[in-house]
Amino acid sequence: MVKETDQIQIPNHKDRKMFIGVVWNCAAELKLLLSALLFLCSLITLFQFFPSSVRDLRGCASFPPPSSAVQFLTTTTNPPPPIEPQQIKKLEDVVLEGGLIKRNFNGYGAAAYNFILMSAYRGGVDTFAVIGLSSKPLHLFSKPTYLCQWVPHNVSENQQNITTLGYKILPDWGYGRVYTVVIVNCTFPFPVGHDGAGGQLLVHASTSGGGDSNYYLTDTIEALTETPGSLNTLQFTAPPKYDYLYCGSPLYGNLSPQRVREWMAYHVKFFGEKSHFVIHDAGGVHPEVMDVLKPWIEKGYVTLQDIKEEERFDGYYHNQFLIVNDCLHRYRFMTKWMFFFDVDEFLFVPKKGTIKTVTDSMSQFTQFTIEQRTMSNNLCYLDDTAGKIYRKWGMEKLVYRDTKRGIRRDRKYVIQPRNVFATGVHMSQNIKGKSTHKTEGKIMYYHYHGTISERREPCRQLVNTTNLNVEGTPYVVDTTMREAAGNVKRFELRMIGPVLQRTRQ
């Protein structure tokens, strides 16, 4: 029962009808308002998880500038100059006499770059090598040309125009995809920049129509700049720093750290103190592989280069030909001999010789090749230590050699780089001097194909016979590398300690 003093608010019936009417008439607007509020709250909640650069909304007030203007705006407060559009007259269809309709075609942009510069190096006081990629169709269906120009920093009246035709070399033998490798040799009729005053090498790359006879486009490439006093001409004649230098092809994929570990320890021992290894990372040097390379980098045996940027350009096999040619010209005056092979291949010289006796005997040749011995990548010899086989190195347990006859096996090669103008993967065809393939019995390499690219135990079949035939391929036991493993392990321990003892597959 309610007391008289208690006040109960009963809404007026008319007021309630008016309120319901207003709400009913504005239902659509209220739904829109509530939806907007819900979206705004959700957006604010999500913004808490965005990086700070994204949370900055000041740039929402205008469209982003083109990429070419971004760099300009970061270096100056003045507005960028207007971009002048290329004046190309649009061709229209034409009706000819007799009602024949002549159709026309209008091209815009380019299918591939005219030239992609990777590097440029001096080859002497009067010569340079410019290394890069170029459109493969351009070189297949047209005849692009290159003009080299040296521009001194202090231009005098008699040195205003020093030019020479560039000689192009295509070292990848047609293996290129969208892009092919181009080495432009710029050899001037007399020394340039040898006075130490500095200067700039320009390369004018002309498409010669590029398949379209109506256009002859030329791009000017700033290939190399020498600051005053930076050139040391003694490098061209001084004794090299290294006896042996390894130029590695691009490493990619999920590589096995243990296989890389074995390869590094073995070849540092094989080549000796006056050797160096240039490793190119195209995505294969993940943290665990880096742990393997780091001790040798700290010891001064390895230089690691990050080349993942080349993956933007579709060339043959991670642009392998591009990378080895850059390595050739970058280090050509730093070593007597330069080696080209892969990290699943192990060089070997019989016990009566050494790598020095081999190279000394080949000194009259600019290039010599190395024969291959193909090893099984999954057959392992089951001996009296079968329970410990999984703890052994790959070179200890993969001992079955392919002896199939009548097939052509790949070779790898060695060069004296000062006499080489461009190089390949299995040999070079652009050299000054002689080559030889007669190295049987002197030097060979054991190829464990596929073992470097899989992070698993390589043994898939354990056998205890010295001769067997698997799917038509005859194998014999070859313990050459197995017998060398013990010395390699002790060498690694002596050189870098036990830091890699727990390396995994």
Automatic annotation (TrEMBL):
<dbReference type="GO" id="GO:0016020">
    <property type="term" value="C:membrane"/>
</dbReference>
<dbReference type="InterPro" id="IPR008166">
    <property type="entry name" value="Glyco_transf_92"/>
</dbReference>
<dbReference type="GO" id="GO:0016757">
    <property type="term" value="F:glycosyltransferase activity"/>
</dbReference>
<comment type="similarity">
    <text>Belongs to the glycosyltransferase 92 family.</text>
</comment>
<dbReference type="GO" id="GO:0005737">
    <property type="term" value="C:cytoplasm"/>
</dbReference>
<keyword id="KW-1133">Transmembrane helix</keyword>
<dbReference type="Pfam" id="PF01697">
    <property type="entry name" value="Glyco_transf_92"/>
</dbReference>
<keyword id="KW-0472">Membrane</keyword>
<protein>
    <recommendedName>
        <fullName>Glycosyltransferase family 92 protein</fullName>
        <ecNumber>2.4.1.-</ecNumber>
    </recommendedName>
</protein>
<keyword id="KW-0812">Transmembrane</keyword>
<keyword id="KW-0328">Glycosyltransferase</keyword>
<feature type="transmembrane region" description="Helical">
    <location>
        <begin position="21"/>
        <end position="50"/>
    </location>
</feature>
<keyword id="KW-0808">Transferase</keyword>
